[in-house]
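Consider the tokenized backbone below.
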């Protein structure tokens, strides 16, 4: 099934999330609300930097009106706090007339974006997403692996933009800001399993919070944390 090109364009065009407020220092801070992200954000408060972020996402069987969509992504520096931009890799999902469709796509810095057509993704598949972007001169790197059918793809790219490595994200993103005709699809529960984030140096103090998606004044998601997993549930 051919993926909706409008959804791909919306993902590439979507603005980064403004950094949410922090109300207290803890591993799980209070939940805040944002218009387009639902999930967990971890922020480094010292001199450490995130060099990689990963998770295995269990692809849900989405439902909803034709044209509804979203993306489940992992990333670094997605909160618009870094001049060098962000590094994100995600699974785009779209409710087409023929049924649900899925595709992996990435965006890096302000000048690199693309998608993978050689990794087939279906509901129920465990998809491992890995992004690696050391803040030194090492090139950025993304890799997507379908652990069910053993298909995988990766992309390495050089960029003049260097990341700050201060935030790590495991979130579902709504694309309705970029395309008002594409509300968030009903994804049931999106499971980000085995969430990991690290770097070459001591990371130092971390502050994690959860955010929920709001559309037209309505909260659409609920986030819970279980051991090393983040669960985002559509309400």
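A designed sequence for it:
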């Amino acid at each position: 099934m051919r993926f909706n090109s409008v959804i791909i364009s919306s993902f590439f065009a979507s603005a980064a999330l403004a950094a949410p407020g922090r109300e207290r220092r803890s591993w799980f801070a209070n939940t805040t609300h944002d218009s387009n992200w639902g999930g967990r954000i971890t922020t480094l408060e010292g001199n450490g930097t995130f060099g990689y972020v990963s998770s295995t996402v269990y692809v849900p069987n989405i439902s909803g009106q034709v044209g509804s969509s979203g993306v489940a992504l992992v990333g670094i520096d997605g909160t618009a706090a870094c001049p060098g931009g962000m590094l994100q890799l995600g699974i785009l999902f779209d409710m087409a007339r023929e049924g649900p469709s899925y595709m992996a796509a990435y965006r890096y810095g302000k000048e690199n974006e693309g998608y993978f057509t050689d990794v087939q993704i279906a509901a129920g598949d465990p998809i491992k997403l890995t992004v690696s972007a050391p803040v030194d001169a090492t090139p950025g790197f993304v890799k997507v692996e379908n652990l069910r059918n053993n298909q995988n793809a990766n992309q390495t790219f050089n960029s003049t933009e260097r990341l700050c490595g201060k935030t790590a994200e495991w979130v579902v993103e709504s694309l309705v800001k970029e395309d008002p005709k594409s509300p968030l699809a009903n994804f049931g529960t999106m499971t980000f399993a085995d969430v990991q984030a690290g770097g070459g140096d001591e990371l130092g103090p971390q502050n994690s919070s959860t955010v929920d998606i709001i559309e037209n004044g309505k909260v659409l998601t609920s986030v819970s944390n279980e051991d090393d997993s983040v669960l985002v549930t559509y309400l």
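Residues 15-30 have pLDDT under 50 and may be disordered.
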